[in-house]
Amino acid sequence: MKQIDDFKGKHVLVLGLAKSGYHAALLLHELGAHVIVNDGKIPEDLTDVHTLQDLNIHVVLGEHPLDLVHEKLDYMVKNPGISYENSLVKKAIDLDIPVLTDVELAFRVSKAAIIGVTGSNGKTTTTTLIGNMLEKNVKGHTYIAGNIGIPSTTVAKQTTENDVIVMELSSFQLMGVTTFRPKIAIITNIYEAHLDYHGSREAYKEAKLHLIKQQTIDDYLILNGDLAEMKDIASTSNAQVLYFSKTDDTADAYVKNGNIFVLGEPIMSVSDIQVPGTHNIENVLAASLAARLYGQSKELIQQAVQQFHGVKHRTQFIGNVNGRQFYNDSKATNILATKMALQGFNDKVILIAGGLDRGNGFETLEPSLEKVKTLVLYGETKEKLKLAGEHKKVEKIILVDTLEQAVNTSYALSQVGDIILFSPACASWDQFPSFEVRGDVFIDCVSRLNQQ
For residue 435, what are the domain limits? Predict the structure, then answer.
């Protein structure tokens, strides 16, 4: 990693002792900062806390004392999920103290080139695909990090000039960057999401666009050419802009006659894509374009796509239970993601959905419910989802309390040959700490069915 003096002797408050906060604190300590870590909760496992304390890092748990933020504080590094309405964050902003996220730290110390991927949907799959495509990187090592679950600071510390980091970036993370500059930036799409955090679609979009603010003519920006507003985004960029499209054969990556073309050359057939849904064609187009810009061969790109069978919790095939196929799409934390998942199936499905109520209705999901023969609903939004199902005249709608009940009910109502899709269209936080935990519970429930 680069040895930088940005934080040497500086007073830094790390707000949030999750995985990203813990590793950010370790990096800042290594860079010579005076670090205090604060978390409003007390974790059950105190191993990380003791590790930090052994390094003489002060850790404050169970509350957010306002006096942790003061005029002598140089930086705050906050967990991306912590709201800007948090009292400590608001005070830091009032005192003009920079509020950063861990991806900004990672960028500053990374010797590797960075490919940054953001978007409302598709960013995890696109990130994983690029990582797989560049795995056989003749220059050095390829890392995957960021919102995908691997702290970017741990990866950045290992890098050399010959490496590349493919980084999935959420709007939450991007709000805390100031110098972050990816060599290749990808925006898969921008739809309405996380309005409870950002307050408006415009603010959400603005957060996403922090990805490209520091790019120059020496960098690349890859955009979804099938979305009209991408042209407006392109006009604000200083980078070289390229487009991918499912329909426009003048784009830099496109589909024509069942083949995928990148930079004017055919590189594979659409039939090489092993994961369902037209949205995955978009993901492959974006990833292939990035990999070609980075210098990867057509043959290795095609091979990576042929060998890719999806990402955990993203329309993940779990298995066959007595002739019923189960799919885990726990990552579908918004309506659009569930619509895309449903588009990937030709036959009608049994859909399990529900979760955190963010205040929105589900009218925009209704057209996609044509692909659903039975709705099994749970969580805070089950009554709202029931309304959408009734408007669309879904044959059967069942309400239950828990995900386990939803799995058991779906199986009991199913027949041989049925597809049972778990695609919640909601965040997990009404009953689960994360979509990953929720997806693991779903997998466990299906596994128990197999054992009966």
Answer: 316-451
